[in-house]
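Form P-L/3: holo structure prediction, ligand S-adenosylmethionine.
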Amino acid sequence: MPDHSIPEVLPACGALRTAFLRTGYHADSILALLGADAHAALGRGEPVPVRRAVNDGGDLGTLVRLFLLGDTCSMEEAGAALAPLPLDAAVDAGLVRPYGVGVRAALDVRPLDTGTGTSWLVSDLDGDRRSPAGGPMGAAPAHADPAYVPGVGQASLSLLRATPTASVGSVLDLGTGCGVQAVHVHGHAHRVTATDVSARARALAAASFALNEMNVELLGGSWFEPVAGREFDQIVANPPFVVGPARVRHIYRDSGLDLDGASELVIRGAPAHLTPGGTASLLASWVHVRGEQWRARVASWIPEHGVDAWVVQRDVADPALYVGTWLRDAGIDPGSTEGVARSEEWLEHLERADVEGIGFGYVTLRRTDQPSDVLAEDLLHSYPDPLGPEALAYLQRVVWLRDNDLLSSRFVVAAATTLQQVSVPSEHGWEQVVARLHRGDGPAWQHEIDELGTALLAGMRSAGLTLGGLVTMLEAANGEPSGSLQVGAVALVDGLVRHGLVLPA
Ligand SMILES: C[S@@+](CC[C@H](N)C(=O)[O-])C[C@H]1O[C@@H](n2cnc3c(N)ncnc32)[C@H](O)[C@@H]1O
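OUTPUT (holo model):
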């Protein structure tokens, strides 16, 4: 018996690709067809301006209505838009399904341009675009179904932006889903391996790879089992990290491990699968337990030797907000009978584990042959640039800090660093209350800095005094005992170098 829960899209991909190339089903052509306003409306999930804009849009307009709006299209127009893929082959492949006198999309197939041109990704339709009636393709999962394969979500895009894109030999995408990370890294890697425990995810990822004519090694199995004994130059993973009881209700987000066990497993497991110098970019979450530091918890997952780690916390949710958000994500109203029962159980579980909050963010690892260097910090503010290049630059700065004596080195203030001095009016005129360094690019770090620190940075020149020389001068100028400012200066400069506000000359 064929397994109807796994669509056989692969045989249709060659002709579908031809149809997409012929019609120009690309991110930029769709923007050109819709215009900026209707394109923005599409992003907001408002169909009417989009329908009006594609009224006379020919085959491209039909594909937009079929796959991006989820409209019913007539057999004739769908057949014309999908040609040379015959409509009945598209139905057999599970791409579209008969609906009344026309057809509707049965899978989500959409272009994505992450800066290197269009690629196409195949995933399940989100809950909003599935027909309530179900229809003949009723076996395809809805968002709440256990086997649901999500498309490119905010988390996928955020990992993509946090992933370095320097050229590498081999990449592993662990838990590939629709294949978005593997497709993204394909542009800078010679070999890409993607794994997923879900057969449905693997079928859709295979379709994504075929549509893009990408040769990706696709392996089934749990966590690192399919790549046992193998090493990669880069690992990317957006694992099923939702924090809760140890069970799997939705395979795309539940790990079957208690609380933050999935993040722990991936962070602990990744270094053994990295080549020397290889890096891992991971999305992860961690619980904030009463009386415990979240930084110490994540740091305890990293071995004492052989790994440089940069952990940035992007958000923290209280248990109630967290549970409500993830219930809604699965299409469950927290006020419904099911929602109430699930909330009770979930919140009770978190309460019993003394969980006060759930943090979420990026973990960048590099395999080294040195004692580990671990920095876990908050990055809760917004910043303009993708984090991927910064993650790599951060790891390079860590290597520099390990290999060099700071006191005998020269430094410069980075070009994007500015100093903001805030003063308030007082009886003696303006009184400075705080001075802050700002980084104008990358993660837009800010550091408060005192008067001595400001003076130290003011003296930094590429051909000037070493840090030790500057400190000696400052000690003399301020009547401080010789050597008394060294420890503080080294700690300050170490922190500023890590954050790219000050750089080795
Ligand atoms: C949050 S989705 C990420 C999908 C995709 N990589 C992305 O970035 O959008 C997590 C993926 O991990 C897969 N997964 C769940 N449990 C797994 C396990 N034990 N081993 C490997 N993959 C697993 C799910 O099927 C799902 O495709």
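COMMENT: Residues 27-43 form the longest helix (17 residues).
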